[in-house]
Specification:
Blueprint lengths: L6 E4 L6 E4 L7 H18 L5 H13 L7 H6 L12 E6 L2 E2 L14 E10 L6 H15 L5 H7 L2 H17 L5 E10 L6 H5 L1 H9 L6 E7 L1 H8 L6 E5 L5 E3 L2 E7 H7 L1 E2 L2 E2 L16 H11 L14 E5 L1 E5 L2 E5 L2 E4 L1 H12 L9 E8 L3 H11 L15 H12 L3 E3 L15 E3 H11 L4 H6 L8 H8 L6 H19 L6 H6 L1 H13 L1 E2 L3 H4 L9 H17 L4 H4 L2 H9 L4 E2 L1 H6 L13
Parallel strand pairs: 5-6, 6-7, 13-17, 18-19, 20-21
Antiparallel strand pairs: 1-2, 3-4, 3-5, 8-15, 9-10, 10-17, 11-12, 13-16, 14-15
Helix pairs in contact: 1-2, 1-9, 4-8, 10-12, 11-12, 15-18, 15-20, 18-20, 20-22
Amino acid sequence: MNGSRGLRWRRPDSNVAFNFQPDRVSPMSDDILIRTILQKNKSRYGVNLSDSDAFEYFCAETVLKPYALTFDDIEKGLVDGKNDGGIDSVYFFVNRSLIAIDTDLANFKSPVTVDLYIIQSKIDGGFAETAMTRLQTAIPRLIALDTDTSTLAKLYKSDVLEVFEMYREGLKELAGEFPAVTVHVIYANLATARNNKVEAMIPALETAIANKFPKSTCKVELWNAAKLYEEAQKQNILVKQLPFVKQAISHGKGYVFLAGLKDYYEFITDNGKLIDSLFEFNVRDYQSAASVNKEIAATLQTAGDEADFWWLNNGITILAETAQAQDNRLTIKNPLVVNGLQTSHEIHRFFAGGGADEKERSVQVRVLEIDDETRRDRVIKATNSQTGIKPASLHATEPFQRKIEDFLLQLGIFYDRRKDYWRNKGMPADKIIGIERLAQSVMSVSLERPHDARARPTTIMKDDDEYQALFADTTDLKIYQICAELYFAVDAYFKKGSKTIDAIYRNNLRYHLMMQLAWELNGSRPIHGAALKLLKVGTLTDANIKKVLDHTIAEFDKYGATDKAAKTDAFTVTLQKASLVKTSTLAAQAAPAASAPAAQPKS
């Protein structure tokens, strides 16, 4: 498709960038194609979704494709519902990393870039002035650093408030790094005609948003059916070419060669931006403040050094589905940089910051064709084990994690220990559980710590002792089946009740509800491994879940019904004391305090 990228200009003496989409009217075929894609792919997003709900997933996935988010990440940003301020999804990134409630922002050092994506996605009706008016009212109020949070709490739902609070507090914490801030507002619709009045409202909205933070920029874009189809059709299969110096050494299904620094920069970028999907199997994130990265940066800045760059650097390791050398360049299908993330980021920073291309400087690259998952995991672990990485960062490659995946697979449960592996194979969304979700479920059900599952979604596995409490290789594999099934049951119930169960409860009580449903199935609490693995989750009915949820909501309301309350062990203790089931005398004598891990289930 020959879709233009639109015109862009900057008003003199302004920090506001104006973005207009192509003038051409979207032909009816684009609208039909998008609807066809939605019907075909709806099961990837979830079961029993309406067209409008599936469209929200589709829009977020399409807009954020450059960030290579998992479907779990996308789902966490969906905030549509009553009191959403016209916002259907919102995502907060720092240095292209998605920020969660437990992200340590102290790891980000100058230069820092902040991107906030706010998406409104309406499948029907065309672009509407009322929709833009809602955004004009809500967004400036939600992003203002001096906003009155008590007033916001009366106007907007809790999951909207949580993301914008992360954004506001994040900007305050990062202020000393002088971040470059961009707020992206995407209004997506299957419109086939322009609305000049809506387009005329864009400059005022951009100015109102950009004025809320010094030197920030706002970009408001209207994505019609043609634009959505243009972005959605971009291939998920990535084929890149990397030139090499003189010749490559080839042995078996591997290549070793030197690539020019500028050539490698162009290999890992698209229009100057890093291609995040290249690095999705890296076990570490980029740490700009690490001493090794400062040394890499210093080496890059040293022009005319007699020691070539590759002499002083361990190089890059790339896994590929296929690789073929011809005419002094390697064509690589679906490359994955599994070692060399830090080097790659520093090379990107060097050239993106105006660094000069010295033709004679090179980086060493290894490209390996590996289609066997076990061998791939061995390479990922081996190439990341020489630089002081904590073992907790390598868990997805461990044999026990593969055992869990193999066991659950036999039961029709698809364990995504690797990023979106099963989702990308077209497996149904209601039978897929990621490694972080499973860890949160085990934390809640087996260890009776739902507050930690709620408060620490991305960090509960980073501590080695914590990891062993969740995934000791002596744990009966059926424990993971039960925890996954409880997650699916609660998730399905919340999705069915998304219009009637308030977001404050759906966001905060998922894991507390799972813990109590396990008690309900067992008939008493606490539950030890021998009993836990025998639970029959399939016998749960909507009536069972409603009874326990109503009880949990009542206790939560008495406790204040706040995000903070759900993240405290004191609320978990409250639920234990107010349990609907009896407490086993024998179990109570043996059970540790609520804030400590429960006894580990054994096989």
